[in-house]
UniProtKB/TrEMBL annotation:
Family (UniProt): Belongs to the alliinase family.
GO BP term, example: amino acid metabolic process
Transmembrane segments annotated in the record for this chain: none
Protein's name in the database: Alliinase C-terminal domain-containing protein
Keyword Transferase belongs to the record: yes
Species of origin: Kalanchoe fedtschenkoi
Domain Alliinase C-terminal: 83-442
Organism phylogeny: Eukaryota, Viridiplantae, Streptophyta, Embryophyta, Tracheophyta
Amino acid sequence: MGKGWNSAMYWRHLLVLSLAINIGLVAKVLLFQGAENEERLCAVEAGAEGAHFSKKAAHVNRGVGKGPSLVVAHGGRDRGRVVNLDHGDPTMYEMFWKRMDEETTIVIPGWQSVSYFSDPGNPCWFMEPEFAKQVVRIHRVVGNAVTENRYIVVGTGSTQLYQAALYALAPTGDDPNPMDVVSVAPFYSSYPLMTDFLKSGLYKWAGDAKLYDKEGPYIELVTSPNNPDGEPRTSVVNRSQGVLIHDFAYYWPQYAPITSAADHDLMLFTVSKSTGHAGIRIGWALVKDKEVAMKMTKFIELNTIGVSKDSQLRAAKILKATSDSCEGISNSKVENFFEFSFNQMTLRWMKLRAAVRKSGLFSLPDFSSEWCAYNQQAFKPQPAFAWLKCEGEIDDCEGFLKKQKILTRSGRHFGASPKYVRVSMLDRDPNFDLFVERLSTMSQIEGTTPVP
Ligand SMILES: Cc1ncc(COP(=O)(O)O)c(C=O)c1O
């Protein structure tokens, strides 16, 4: 027995040891992957709306920013969670679109969209006819813009169309001076960055339109309702050599009363903020002048040789589903999209105003009520962003809120005072609710005590 048994015992021990080592290794690999996935998830959750955002979020998520309040505490659920409302990522509409699965799903077979061309006879030759049809239809349904006798130009977001419009409106002659581009402060923080990014010889950022007193040609950007403060806007410079770009990203009935059908020379729209599909990257311009529409098309041709057909088809499907929901054509269980989004925004603004009142540390803009021709009622604007002011001695509102683990965008980026911040109202419910809850309890934490 002795020798045989010893040998059996020896092999059994070896087997147990080997099993233990393997289990240890497998556990290590799984743990490592878990940590890696968590980090990746943080990075994905972080991503949207430009350079301001991505660096800041990465910094905070890794806990390497200045000061103790930047370390993300993973324990204790929401207490230490960073609420990032710096960017205007419209994820709040996700819950509506989840209910519209059937109405919005498209299948694109491999043979489709192989050509560069969509509609060779159209000045915007890369625009899908179905997309153009749904653009005209949504404006007719909502009544927010005139589409008759207009050229439609599709773009990779209205961001690309903005640049195409600058190119098309700037004089092509031998004028050595770039054309000035102005907008009333506070203006959308990306305008100066997009205008000067390529140091164009055709145009340059010239700041606040209210302070603009130069003679000569200029471009004025009119954003209505305005980003960041939600105010309805009209042009202010009004000189003979000016041309206007109207940015109507937020002229939709969940944000502002539709007082009339906008009727201007060059108007920009986007699915990013209308239906909340920022990731599809589709915008459109309604342009009166054919030459301008053709120059914008040329810009996009030289920039990206057109606009993704797949994205245009998805945008068309979503715009169709939106119009159908408004006209009660789709599934009877489906709510009107603009009713849903209007009610959501109303609720959020009520919660925010209540929290601001309770804290006593902040203020918000007051709006006047106007009649909305779309939903046949008078209401006050309920913008996609809150233009929040830190009252009293708090001079750096962004820094102050950062200590409470709330990321916002300082007024400085919008040509305004750092006493203001822009806060996105379009995030998912849990983030928005946590923000409001933190804001409402701030007076009790004596202003500067950071959230642990
Ligand atoms: C006023 C305004 N214009 C344009 C855009 C960009 O829209 P898009 O996502 O279509 O490029 C934004 C996005 O935040 C915006 O606020």
